[in-house]
Amino acid sequence: MLMAMWLKGMVAEETLALTHEMMLSGEVMSWPKEWTGLVVDKHSTGGVGDKVSIPLAPALAACGCKVPMISGRGLAHTGGTLDKLESIPGYNVYQSVEQMKQFLEDVGCCIVGQTENLVPADKVLYALRDATATVDSLPLITGSIISKKGAESLSALVLDVKYGKAALFKDIFSARKMAQSLVTVGNRLGIRTGAALSRMDNPIGLCIGNSLEVVESLECLKGRGPADLHDLVTSLGGYLLWMSGKAPSMDRGKQEIGRALENGAALQKFQAMLQAQGVSSENAHILCTMDSDYFQVLRRAHSEVELEAQAEGTVLEVNGIIIAEVLHKLGAGRTKAGEPINHSIGAELLVTVGTKVKKGDIWVRVHYETPVLNAELQACLQGALVIVSSDHDHIDDTSLVSEFIHPE
Predict the structure, then answer these.
(1) Which residues lie across from 42 on neighbouring strands?
(2) Nearby residues of 285 by Cβ (< 8 Å), 6 or more positions away
(3) Can 51 be counted among the known catalytic residues?
(4) Which of 50, 122, 201, 231 is the catalytic position?
(5) Is 361 a catalytic residue?
(6) Which one of 16, 25, 239, 301 is at 20 to 30 Å from 180 when CA atoms are compared?
(7) Residue 43 is among the residues annotated as catalytic for this protein
(8) Is 391 an active-site residue?
(9) Annotated catalytic residue 394
């Protein structure tokens, strides 16, 4: 059946029917009537350094939304959202639906793993897709993503569909096709669904790797994060506030999310979420103070090395997939579900696209343990940095979000 779907494709009605039945294969959540219009979520197709969910969920909660974010680990080169959060000692991703309801009541948001009785059909089908090489089927991807969001009984959903060298979809045309399928089925299931198409060539932010991405997420929550991460969080959050009726326009919604990051309201929500999900009040406080020593709580790798730029000029590109593949070999991600990973492995970029560098300038700091960052892996990493002559005039510093596909 899966091979037939992969070979022949499915029309929209068939994809909708499959998604609907998958959604009904387990528990479908219900929320209090007074939360009508407030329950929202976001899904990303994934990318290098994509830690958007961590600051976004508490920022939305600070703006009055309820965010039951059911996330995953997947087979990402550098771990998924749950792996990042589990680098915080005590953080418990395994929560019951009743506990999630309590978190939404008390805090306004939670970030948890998929429960056993939520869309069990998806777990069966995903394992079979993996075994039959049908993972990349557009209707099957749509069914997998939207069935889980449908079971969350959402009012509004935004999908961040990425394209580029470090994304599943290499060009905007295939990303747009995927986004349209997701938007169509989501809306037909009764969820107000929109999508953002965003570029994924360079890493998001400056940190890649689980513990380091938590640090950068906290910096974003403190109003100090890198500009591209801040822009993605405010753009996706503003879009959700508009779709859920909490803001009269996307721009106004973006301003509201930005205000929650600047005034500390989102940070307070994140601290409360950490404590609700098992982190000690002392550790949550240390992480969320403005002058934190993050590595009082988070584990730091035993070794680090800094690499130098091999030429002078302007940074045209920092190839995210090359960096992710090296970090994966160092133990930051997994090849098979259930494999352990080392949360402390990662890389800090000291340059971004458009930075002018001289030969010998430090451009990346790599944190590693066992296996070591040998000469071969260092040479691979050097291939990620693309430098052009300083008078190059094709540096793309526009917003990562290229376009939106609005609800039908």
Answers:
(1) 158
(2) 271
(3) no
(4) 122
(5) no
(6) 25
(7) yes
(8) no
(9) no
